[in-house]
Design brief:
The complex is a heterodimer.
Chain A lengths: L2 H24 L3 E2 L2 H6 L1 H4 L3 E15 L2 E7 L4 E6 L1 H4 L10 E2 L2 E9 L10 E11 L2 E2 L6 H21 L14
Chain B lengths: L6 H21 L1 H9 L3 H25 L11 H25 L6 H12 L15 H16 L1 H8 L7 H7 L10 H29 L4 H16 L17 H14 L3 H8 L5 H4 L1 H24 L5 H16 L9 H7 L2 H13 L12 H18 L10 E4 L1 E4 L2 H27 L4 H12 L15 H15 L3 H15 L2
Helix pairs in contact in B: 1-3, 1-4, 1-7, 2-3, 2-6, 3-4, 4-5, 4-8, 4-22, 5-6, 5-21, 6-10, 7-9, 9-10, 9-11, 10-11, 11-15, 14-15, 14-17, 14-18, 15-17, 17-20, 18-19, 19-20, 19-21
Classes of the chains: A alpha+beta, B mainly alpha.
Chain lengths: 175, 504
């Protein structure tokens, strides 16, 4: 092999890890389902990934970092954020509330060494793609009618059971 | 020849089952109040329906079965056993009404599955979109598991059933066999007092820890209450779909370990410690057995995880391997990993260690399931005694004893009872495993999930899912029910039904 070929090969080998790092830092991330990340965690361990989903539950700020869980319909995944990034999230999903739709890009860990082996994503960027909303929950008249029916049934039976002329049972003692 | 039950037998069973159902209806007032407090009016209507339907069924049973002086007759042993098993089935159907009405279940069977899972403190779930359920529904889920841990019958005995000769039979029928006090009603009340004091302390601790990890004060209080109920009852339910992983917090995990280990201890041990006998913790056969098996199995699981390279650091091995092993051993079922991670990443050794731990279970007369430490301890001692006997002359008399609140001389009868229950657990485990395999799941997955259901644990490897076959859901419901009641009352109900059909 001539010297030029050896030089090119050496350059390629030395540049390869750098290119991996650069790809992770600035290259296009892989947009994935949380299910894919959970079930094939080893494959994506340490890679920059992108997930999109609803911010749910609580925004937990502590020790100079913040946690939020993102639900994409299959699984919810914990995302570690900088406090400044966390401030972008305004609405968290719960009963009668659809949380902010969030697109998170960051490094995925199958077993994060900094967080006790949790499967998590350390966010580089957080983008709110759709703000959260509240969901109206008007009283369902069918539920009200059913409840009224059973209230009347229970009241009638209790009235019969507790009728005032009813004899009192004698008291006995357990062994 | 089986003797056909008399009308009075049906009436006694119906009367006391009615009392238990009325107790269930009164319990629904807690989530109903919660729904009104949080303005969840549709959910409130679901609980009004559930509570009033339960009251209607309860009072219909009381009216149709009562005698001229209240109870239709003395409560005999068979009545207690059948009442315990039957009322648990009735409670499952009625408590499922608010679940199903919430719209978070595909079918009424799924709702019943979750109720039985809660009542038996198992923790397997089929609920959909858990992250968006009303506060009141979460309150009901966790209250169910808290009541189930102490026992529906214990609750009814404490507050609704008058002191009755034979009341002890319904208490035993629910899988509790310790009498902390001479009177069974006083024992039931003592169990509730112990549990309520722990509830107040545990909720307070988790509230503070919750605020420390960034939850708002109200959310920290609600989560603290619910997670404590699930931990103390070794239930394993959690308010969010990620279970304990949701919090991403070591302090939260440490607090839950303390509470679920405490919940897995015998109420007789708690009572002994409460009354000043602290040495009982170190001398009791159950704590010694639990410490031995949990240490050995933890080492096995952690070694397996380290060997396969699943987790490298000590913290990871503790928070994942040790946490799940102890969660399984105490039959709690809290998970700090995803179910599918266990299947895909953990390898066979940790899965085997957790499966064995789930089968062994916690202490007798606790909120835990499984074989129970006292039986494991007694059987181990009996085996050692037999080995010793081989080395002695045939005429030698060998006696052995164990310490459980007091020194107890081992007798063949105790060993036989312990062996019978353990064998019944193993048979049930084998049948449930076969059912899982027949449904198309791998043998490892089927065995793991079967151990979880039979031992009332709640750890899942991913089999339990709304899409699993209906017959497997029914098999798991029966396994959870039989495992929680420790077979006696279930067999009592089966023989009662056989007597109805074939008796003369």
């Amino acid at each position: 092999m001539d010297k030029r070929a050896i030089l090119v090969l050496t350059l390629l080998i030395s540049v390869f890890p750098v290119s991996r790092v650069l790809a992770n830092a600035v290259g296009p991330a892989i947009t994935l389902q949380a299910k894919e990340l959970v079930e094939k965690a080893s494959r994506y361990d340490g890679q920059v990934v992108e997930i999109a989903g609803e911010a749910i539950g609580d925004l937990m700020q502590r020790d100079g970092e913040a946690w939020v869980n993102i639900l994409d319909g299959s699984y919810a995944i914990g995302v570690r954020l900088e406090p400044a990034q966390a401030r972008a999230i305004r609405t968290l999903g719960g009963y009668r509330v659809v949380g902010d739709q969030v697109k998170v890009r960051g490094t995925f860990h199958r077993a994060c060494p900094a967080h006790g082996g949790d499967l998590d994503i350390h966010a580089d960027t957080v983008e709110i793609t759709r703000p959260g909303t509240s969901v109206p929950d008007p009283i369902d008249p069918r539920k009200a009618a059913l409840a009224l029916f059973w209230v009347l049934c229970a009241a009638a039976l209790m009235l019969i059971y507790y009728r005032p002329w009813r004899p009192k049972p004698p008291k006995t003692v357990a062994p | 020849m089986l003797k056909r039950p008399r009308v009075r037998d049906y009436r006694v069973i119906g009367y006391y089952s009615g009392k238990v159902i009325v107790g269930l209806a009164l319990c629904m007032l807690v989530p109903l109040g919660t729904a009104l407090l949080f303005a969840e009016f549709n959910s409130a209507l679901d609980f009004v329906t559930g509570a009033c339907l339960s009251l209607a069924v309860g009072y219909a049973l009381l009216l149709s079965c009562e005698g001229p002086d209240g109870a239709p007759g003395p409560l005999e042993w068979v009545h207690g056993m059948v009442t315990a098993a039957f009322s648990w089935l009735l409670c499952m159907c009625l408590a499922a009404v608010p679940y199903f009405a919430s719209g978070h279940y595909d079918s009424f069977l799924d709702a019943m599955f979750d109720v039985m899972s809660g009542f038996t403190t198992t923790g397997l779930v089929l609920i959909k979109d858990l992250d968006h359920v009303p506060v009141s529904l979460n309150m009901w889920r966790h209250l169910l598991t808290y009541i189930g841990g102490q026992g529906m019958i214990v609750l009814a005995l404490s507050f609704l059933i008058r002191a009755q000769p034979g009341a002890v039979s319904v208490y035993v029928g629910e899988g509790k066999d310790e009498k902390l006090l001479p009177n069974v009603v006083h024992t039931a009340r003592a169990i509730w007092v112990i549990s309520l004091v722990y509830l107040a302390v545990g909720t307070g601790v988790l509230w503070i820890v919750g605020m420390g990890i960034g939850l708002t004060p109200l959310r920290a209080l609600l989560h603290g209450l619910w997670v404590f109920m699930a931990a103390w009852s070794t239930g394993g339910f959690a308010p969010q779909s990620q279970n304990i992983l949701y919090y991403h917090s070591l302090p939260y995990e440490l607090a839950t370990i303390v509470f679920f280990v405490a919940g897995s201890l015998n109420f007789a041990l708690h009572y002994a410690v409460w009354t000043g006998n602290r040495r009982e913790i170190y001398r009791n056969i159950e704590t010694i057995t639990f410490a031995t098996t949990s240490t050995a199995l933890s080492l096995l699981a952690v070694w397996g995880l380290a060997r396969s390279g699943t987790y490298a650091g000590v913290t990871e091995l503790f928070r994942k391997g040790y946490y799940l092993l102890v969660s399984g051993h105490t039959t709690t079922g809290f998970m700090s990993v995803y179910a599918r991670q266990i299947e895909y990443e953990w390898g066979p050794i940790p899965i085997l260690a957790i499966t064995i731990a789930m089968l062994l279970g916690g202490s007798a007369c606790s909120t835990a399931g499984g074989f129970k430490a006292i039986r494991v301890g007694v059987i181990t001692k009996a085996i050692l005694q037999d080995i010793k006997r081989m080395a002695l002359p045939g005429s030698a008399v060998l006696t052995d004893k164990f310490h459980h609140v007091r020194d107890v001389i081992m007798e063949d009868k105790q060993i036989r009872v312990a062996m019978t229950i353990v064998i019944l657990y193993i048979i049930t485990f084998a049948i449930v495993t076969a059912a899982g395999a027949a449904a198309g799941y791998s043998l490892t997955d089927s065995a793991f999930e079967a151990a979880s259901a039979t031992g009332n644990v709640g750890l899942s490897i991913g089999v339990t899912d709304p899409s699993m076959p209906a017959f497997l859901k029914i098999v798991y419901i029966v396994a959870m029910w039989a495992g929680r009641l420790e077979f006696a009352s279930v067999l009592g109900l089966v023989s009662f039904i056989a007597a109805v059909i074939r008796g003369r």
